[in-house]
Specification:
Length: 251
């Protein structure tokens, strides 16, 4: 096969899937792994794909290395976050044992929980815990280090404190959602806790507005198939092929 033909097939595969591995390209194109790696390097230099460890990703994705503080986050996409939070709250039932992750969208979720619901809650969000107890809910707080930027309890102690629990549902925040990299967050300590909560939940929901799609941050805490996504955006088919997605309407 001619080089230009391989280039065309590779770029088409990346555009379709947003990210592909060398192994996938070897199987699809029939060239050797060494040849595919050279092609990916060349295409990266041409700006056609983004070379990543083990494969390539579409250049449209955005890699983030930092995040805003809580006050800044509160000012962004408020209507979208509230619509997502309202739907998520409607899924909570009597006798649920719920984990609520720290974050602005998950905090809005608490505002919409019916006070008549006899659910029990665990959270690592300082403000979240105060809101839950103010509404009269039985609430447990994860123990550990407080991360000032997100007002979240994080770290190994927090992970150990929730390992004994088995949640019916968890509601998790994310900084990025990507078909290849999965759900990502900026901080390693926060990622550890998110991962543990997802692994100890019967059903997990990631609450994320449309701006989180196609973005990748430092640490992956779960693949897309591990959680349902609640979002306000019109989601591309490549995401729907990997997990369940609820698209909510924003007034």
């Amino acid at each position: 096969m001619l080089t230009q033909e391989r280039y065309r097939l590779i770029t088409e595969a990346v555009e379709k899937n947003q990210a592909v591995t060398v192994e996938q390209l070897v199987n699809e194109i029939g060239a050797s792994a060494a040849t595919i790696r050279r092609d990916l390097t060349a295409l990266d230099e041409l700006g056609k794909v983004k070379r990543i460890r083990g494969g390539a990703a579409a250049v449209e994705q955005e890699f983030l290395t930092s995040e805003d503080d809580v006050d800044t986050k509160y000012e962004k996409n408020v209507a979208e976050k509230k619509a997502i939070a309202e739907y998520a709250a409607s899924t909570i039932q009597n006798d649920d044992f719920i984990y609520i992750d720290a974050g602005t969208t998950t905090e809005f979720l608490i505002d919409y929980i019916d006070i008549s619901v006899s659910a029990v809650f665990v959270t690592n969000g300082i403000v979240h815990a105060k809101k839950l107890i103010s509404k009269g809910f039985k609430t447990y707080m994860a123990g550990g280090l407080i991360r000032a930027k997100t007002e979240a309890v994080v770290g190994s102690e927090a992970v150990e404190s929730i390992k004994k629990f088995n949640f019916t549902k968890s509601f998790i925040g994310a900084n990025g959602i990507h078909p290849f990299h999965g759900f990502t967050t900026v901080d390693t300590d926060e990622a550890m806790l998110k991962k543990e909560a997802v692994n100890h939940s019967y059903v997990s929901y990631v609450l994320a507005d449309h701006t989180k799609f196609g973005k990748v941050t430092a640490v992956t805490f779960a693949p897309l198939e591990k959680a349902c996504i609640v979002t306000d955006g019109i989601v591309k088919d490549k995401y729907k092929e990997l997990t369940l997605i609820k698209e909510v309407h924003v007034e």
